[in-house]
Amino acid sequence: MDIRAPVKLDKKTKSLVSRIEEGDIAIIHHRDIDEVAANSLINRKVSAVINCEMSISGRYPNLGPSLLEKAKINIYDVIKGDLFHVLKDGDHIIIKEEKVFFEDKEIATLLELTSTKIQQLLTAAETNLEVELEKFIDNTLTYAHKEKDFILGKLVIPSIKTNLQDKQVLVVVRGQDYRRDLSAILPYIREIKPILIGVDGGGDALLEFGFTPDIIIGDMDSVTDECLKACKEIIVHAYPNGKAPGMERVKQLNLKATLFPAPGTSEDIAMLLAYDKGADLIVAVGTHSNMIDFLEKGRKGMASTFLVRLKVGSKLVDARGVSKLYHSSIKAKHIVWLIFAALTPIVITLSISQPVRNLVKLLMIRFRILLGV
Where is the Thiamin pyrophosphokinase catalytic domain (predicted)? Predict the structure, then answer.
């Protein structure tokens, strides 16, 4: 089936999804499409995805292409052609028999990633996991030594306006299954009312569920302007040398922010902040905690995360995957027993009430008269 639609192009997928419209063809440059990127494109309801990189390189079994295929979104890798130099936003193209046509000219050759092809590529990638794991461990241990200040307490934690002392804190990262896990802990959020910290796009995740973040922390590359304006406090994650590209964006919105220079990931420093400011409990949703997570983020190790979890572990509860632990179901017999339990005290009360007993006797007499008994 031919696909005819306008295109939107960006080498950064997370930048593209903020402006792509339903029905557009997404043209990206994203090696090993990860789960978060795939879900973002699915939510925008694109008609197809053309990747100018390898969607599955074979380095590890990344989840993105499978999600796109399952959502019935055609995904293609470019075999020949330079779409970023030929096309611009809004240009209408035709995808026909794994070729791209623009203004009646063939401009690229594609490889369609069907379910069979995706499975073949993922199976091949599985065989590379052991090699990748060895590299990942070596890199983690090397950087753990360099970043040990996370544990030794030499990192300077900035002062903040939000009081976290003896409070429960919920740290939300827009990671795998974050929607389902947030749904699962909604009763906890509504009852305990923890301090809400959104890590970049995690702030928008909280907004999705009707909660306003108390703090947004991160490099500001995936959080919306709406969320930044709504939250109560902004903390910009800077490089250890103090350079903070995200601060410029905050200033352009005429907002104020606190700078937090630190190595590691933004979710690491969110947990460190909560721990240092005296949080009684830290509940984490959607965080990254395994090799696949970090490879999908383009990181070759997880030294800072390993060290941070060593430090804050006594106060940390990771809610990731909690939605998969138990799925309750209401059966017909449960409803019957519930109705029976509710009616029992009513029947007993009525049976010992004298007016009710008199009424029953009167009805019986009327009944016997009608029957001529």
Answer: 193-233
**Mean pLDDT confidence for 253-270:** 91
Q: Please identify which residue in the block is written with the tokens 């052609």.
A: 81
Burial 154-172 (b: 16+ CB within 10 A, else e): ebeeeebebebeebbbbbb
Structure confidence by residue, pLDDT tens digits, 336-358: 666 666 666 666 665 666 666 66
113-116: Cβ within 8 A, 24+ apart: 113/55, 113/56, 113/65, 113/69, 113/75, 113/76, 113/77, 114/69, 115/69
Of 10 and 147, which is predicted with more confidence? 10
Whether 244 and 366 map to the same domain: the answer is no
| pTM, 2 dp | 0.66
Range of the domain at 54: 3-125
DSSP characters for 257-313? -EEEE-SS-HHHHHHHHHHHTT-SEEEEES---SHHHHHHTT-S--HHHHHHHHHHG
Q: What is the mean pLDDT of residues 15-20?
A: 88
Position 209, amino acid:
F
CA distance 138 to 133: 9
- 69 and 155: one domain? no
229 and 155 assigned to the same domain = yes
At residue 356, the pLDDT reads 60
CA atoms of 26 and 73, how far apart (whole Å): 11
The DSSP call for residue 24 is P
Rounded CA-CA distance 260/277 in Å is 14
Which pLDDT band holds residue 325 (cuts at 50, 70, 90)?
A: low
Residues 186 and 102 in one domain: no
Spatial separation of the C-alpha atoms in residues 294 and 298, rounded to whole Å: 6
Which residue among 125, 146, 174 closes a domain? 125
Q: Tell me the per-residue pLDDT of 122-181, one tens digit each, with 9 for 90 and over.
A: 998 888 777 777 777 777 777 777 777 766 677 889 999 999 999 999 999 987 778 888
Phi/psi region, residue 2 (left: phi>0; alpha: psi -120 to 50; beta: rest), is beta
